[in-house]
Design a protein that fits this description.
It is built from 14 helices and twelve strands. With 375 residues, it is α/β, with parallel strands linked by helices.
């Protein structure tokens, strides 16, 4: 049986595109017959969800390729999206596979489908239920995400949990707890620069550390500027970038901030190896950010916010610190407490690595994922 994987490969670099690439590479490594239909449009300017003729034209070729699902015996593995336009696109693949009587596996990499479903009109909800009932298996990222599909009992019974995994093998990580340097601890923001993910709160945290708490820290921002659809104060990503750089100058932090843009490969590994604190003050209902897994694997102290998916990842603060969104003073206090107690920092660094090894390795992820894809 051949597996047809439908989703977006990098670029752009996002948690979902990286996870989709890991799934494809896992099938290839295990010599399982597979073919990818890549939906990626490359560099993005807004969070996915908007409609454009350019995007529709880009989908014409994938839709044509998906007619393979009408013939033979296949499995559809679909990395799905959580917005109305994306759902309509995904429905085409699901209905083609259903018409061909294929096995359908939907992978939900998000954390708020119940809220999204509740925001829809009654006709839209009916269509969502009607389409999703043709799916054989729905993969969610954690036990806390099972409830996303409780709005329809037939769907709730199809959910299976597959934790995300590190996008590379264990031998590429040091697996040694970190120690704080005597000067200049390094902070890391490793995500697309989206306002709701809190990169400006990270910048303010750094300002407080440097100018109010007199801790000579530096912060590395790794990611592309991305606009949020339907509510961004910026007209373009260039405007967002200009505002960010202006804030750095106004806060007198030019010597403390490094923006690298999107990073991958050896550059990302080097930055992870050299960093000490990982900050993600997100207000989004995240799934399971791969950036947090990377931080755990490299022994960084994770400081983030409590959403159901993230809370499950760090077990309520056992393997990281949970701080409310838009509280840079509290973020700075947490960092200062670790700087003043290096032994505590090293203990949390060791706990981060243990959490990664017991739950989030690439090998564990694929060992669970591949059998569920194949059925």
């Amino acid at each position: 049986m051949k597996t047809i994987l439908v989703g977006s490969l990098p670029p752009p670099l996002t948690g979902q595109t990286i996870a989709f690439q890991v799934a494809w590479e896992g099938l290839q490594d295990n010599k399982i017959p597979s073919r990818v239909i890549n939906l990626s449009g490359g560099r993005h300017l807004t969070l996915e969800g908007g409609f454009s003729m350019q995007r529709l034209g880009h989908l014409f070729k994938p839709f044509c390729k998906a007619t393979l699902l009408l013939f033979g015996e296949k499995t559809l593995y679909l990395s799905a999206t959580q917005n109305w336009i994306g759902f309509l696109r995904d429905s085409v693949f699901i209905l083609l596979a259903a018409a061909g009587r294929q096995r359908i596996v939907l992978h939900a990499h998000w954390g708020n489908f119940a809220g999204y479903y509740a925001s829809l009109s009654p006709p839209q909800r009916f269509l969502v239920r009607w389409v999703l009932r043709r799916v054989d298996c729905i993969l969610v990222l954690g036990e806390s995400h099972r409830a996303m599909f409780d709005f329809d009992p037939p769907l709730a019974g199809k959910t299976k949990v597959v934790y995300n995994g590190l996008p590379y093998c264990k031998d590429e990580t040091p697996l040694r707890p970190k120690r704080l340097p005597r000067s200049r601890p390094k902070l890391l923001f490793l995500s697309n620069l989206v306002l709701s993910k809190g990169y400006l709160q990270v910048l303010e945290t750094l300002r407080i550390l440097v100018h109010e708490r007199r801790i000579d820290a530096e912060c590395h921002f790794c990611g592309s500027f991305v606009l949020e659809s339907g509510g961004s104060p910026y007209s373009t990503t260039e405007d967002a970038e200009s505002d960010f750089l202006l804030r750095i100058r106004q806060a007198d932090l030019a010597g403390n901030v490094h923006w690298h843009g999107p990073v991958d490969g050896a550059t990302k590994l080097r930055i992870l190896q050299q960093s000490h604190f990982f900050l993600l003050p997100t207000r989004l209902l995240e799934g399971q950010p791969i950036s947090i897994i990377e931080a755990l694997a490299f022994g960084l102290v994770v400081i983030t916010t409590a959403t159901p998916g993230i809370d499950e990842m760090v077990e309520g603060g056992r393997f990281g610190e949970l701080v409310p969104f838009d509280q840079p003073h509290q973020f700075s206090r947490v960092i200062e407490s670790y700087v003043m107690d290096p032994a505590r920092f090293e203990a949390m660094s060791r706990a981060s690595i243990d959490r990664y090894l017991t739950t989030f390795t690439r090998e564990q992820h694929l060992k669970r994922l591949i059998p569920l894809i194949l059925g």
